Protein backbone atom coordinates (compact mmCIF):
# COMPACT_ATOMS: atom_id res chain seq x y z
CA UNK A 1 0.00 0.00 0.00
CA UNK A 2 1.39 3.41 -0.89
CA UNK A 3 1.66 6.17 1.69
CA UNK A 4 0.42 8.91 -0.68
CA UNK A 5 -3.20 7.65 -1.00
CA UNK A 6 -5.58 7.77 1.98
CA UNK A 7 -7.03 4.51 3.22
CA UNK A 8 -10.41 3.62 1.74
CA UNK A 9 -11.96 0.28 2.79
CA UNK A 10 -14.03 0.13 -0.39
CA UNK A 11 -11.03 0.30 -2.70
CA UNK A 12 -8.94 -2.88 -2.67
CA UNK A 13 -5.28 -2.28 -2.01
CA UNK A 14 -2.47 -3.25 -4.36
CA UNK A 15 -4.77 -3.37 -7.35
CA UNK A 16 -6.92 -6.09 -5.81
CA UNK A 17 -3.96 -8.27 -4.82
CA UNK A 18 -3.81 -9.72 -1.37
CA UNK A 19 -0.97 -8.65 0.92
CA UNK A 20 1.18 -11.60 1.86
CA UNK A 21 0.45 -13.16 5.23
CA UNK A 22 -2.71 -11.17 6.00
CA UNK A 23 -5.56 -12.88 4.08
CA UNK A 24 -7.44 -9.60 4.44
CA UNK A 25 -8.90 -9.26 0.95
CA UNK A 26 -11.02 -12.43 1.16
CA UNK A 27 -12.01 -11.56 4.70
CA UNK A 28 -12.88 -8.01 3.65
CA UNK A 29 -14.95 -9.29 0.75
CA UNK A 30 -16.81 -11.69 3.06
CA UNK A 31 -17.49 -8.90 5.53
CA UNK A 32 -18.56 -6.58 2.72
CA UNK A 33 -20.95 -9.27 1.42
CA UNK A 34 -22.44 -9.62 4.92
CA UNK A 35 -22.77 -5.86 5.21
CA UNK A 36 -24.42 -5.67 1.78
CA UNK A 37 -26.85 -8.43 2.77
CA UNK A 38 -27.64 -6.63 6.03
CA UNK A 39 -28.13 -3.32 4.19
CA UNK A 40 -30.45 -5.08 1.73
CA UNK A 41 -32.49 -6.59 4.56
CA UNK A 42 -32.69 -3.23 6.33
CA UNK A 43 -33.79 -1.46 3.15
CA UNK A 44 -36.45 -4.11 2.66
CA UNK A 45 -37.57 -3.65 6.28
CA UNK A 46 -37.75 0.13 5.87
CA UNK A 47 -39.75 -0.29 2.67
CA UNK A 48 -42.16 -2.68 4.40
CA UNK A 49 -42.55 -0.30 7.36
CA UNK A 50 -43.33 2.60 5.02
CA UNK A 51 -45.91 0.46 3.18
CA UNK A 52 -47.41 -0.51 6.54
CA UNK A 53 -47.61 3.16 7.48
CA UNK A 54 -49.38 3.92 4.22
CA UNK A 55 -51.83 1.08 4.84
CA UNK A 56 -52.44 2.35 8.38
CA UNK A 57 -53.08 5.85 7.03
CA UNK A 58 -55.51 4.41 4.47
CA UNK A 59 -57.22 2.39 7.19
CA UNK A 60 -57.47 5.47 9.41
CA UNK A 61 -59.04 7.44 6.54
CA UNK A 62 -61.52 4.64 5.89
CA UNK A 63 -62.37 4.48 9.61
CA UNK A 64 -62.98 8.23 9.76
CA UNK A 65 -65.10 8.04 6.62
CA UNK A 66 -67.11 5.16 8.07
CA UNK A 67 -67.68 7.06 11.32
CA UNK A 68 -68.92 10.08 9.36
CA UNK A 69 -71.23 7.89 7.28
CA UNK A 70 -72.56 6.22 10.45
CA UNK A 71 -73.35 9.61 11.98
CA UNK A 72 -75.09 10.71 8.76
CA UNK A 73 -77.03 7.44 8.65
CA UNK A 74 -78.11 7.91 12.27
CA UNK A 75 -79.36 11.43 11.52
CA UNK A 76 -81.20 10.21 8.42
CA UNK A 77 -82.73 7.30 10.30
CA UNK A 78 -83.98 9.61 13.06
CA UNK A 79 -85.46 11.97 10.47
CA UNK A 80 -87.27 9.11 8.73
CA UNK A 81 -88.44 7.70 12.08
CA UNK A 82 -89.90 11.08 13.12
CA UNK A 83 -91.49 11.55 9.70
CA UNK A 84 -93.24 8.19 9.86
CA UNK A 85 -94.24 8.76 13.50
CA UNK A 86 -95.98 12.00 12.46
CA UNK A 87 -97.56 10.23 9.48
CA UNK A 88 -98.85 7.49 11.78
CA UNK A 89 -100.09 10.08 14.29
CA UNK A 90 -101.95 11.97 11.53
CA UNK A 91 -103.59 8.73 10.40
CA UNK A 92 -104.70 7.96 13.97
CA UNK A 93 -106.10 11.49 14.37
CA UNK A 94 -108.00 11.14 11.08
CA UNK A 95 -109.43 7.80 12.20
CA UNK A 96 -110.45 9.19 15.58
CA UNK A 97 -112.03 12.26 13.92
CA UNK A 98 -113.85 9.96 11.45
CA UNK A 99 -115.19 7.78 14.26
CA UNK A 100 -116.35 10.87 16.21
CA UNK A 101 -118.07 12.32 13.13
CA UNK A 102 -119.71 8.95 12.41
CA UNK A 103 -120.93 8.70 16.01
CA UNK A 104 -122.30 12.26 15.82
CA UNK A 105 -124.11 11.43 12.58
CA UNK A 106 -125.70 8.39 14.23
CA UNK A 107 -126.37 9.74 17.74
CA UNK A 108 -127.59 13.30 16.95
CA UNK A 109 -130.49 12.24 14.65
CA UNK A 110 -131.47 9.47 17.12
CA UNK A 111 -131.59 11.96 20.01
CA UNK A 112 -133.48 14.52 17.94
CA UNK A 113 -135.96 11.87 16.77
CA UNK A 114 -136.74 10.79 20.34
CA UNK A 115 -137.64 14.28 21.45
UniProtKB/TrEMBL annotation:
In what way does this protein cross or attach to the membrane? Single-pass type IV membrane protein
Entry GO terms, CC: cytoplasm; endomembrane system; membrane
InterPro entries from the entry? Synaptobrevin-like, Synaptobrevin/VAMP, V_SNARE_CC
Q: Where is the V-SNARE coiled-coil homology domain?
A: 27-87
Q: Which PANTHER family does the record associate with it?
A: SYNAPTOBREVIN FAMILY MEMBER
What family does this belong to?
Answer: Belongs to the synaptobrevin family.
Write the protein's name: Synaptobrevin protein
Instruction: Please name the source species.
Output: Zalerion maritima
**Lineage of source species:** Eukaryota, Fungi, Dikarya, Ascomycota, Pezizomycotina
Amino acid sequence: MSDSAPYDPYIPNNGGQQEPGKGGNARTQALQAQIDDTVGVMRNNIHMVSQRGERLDTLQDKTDNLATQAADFRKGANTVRKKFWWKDMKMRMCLIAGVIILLLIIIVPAVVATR
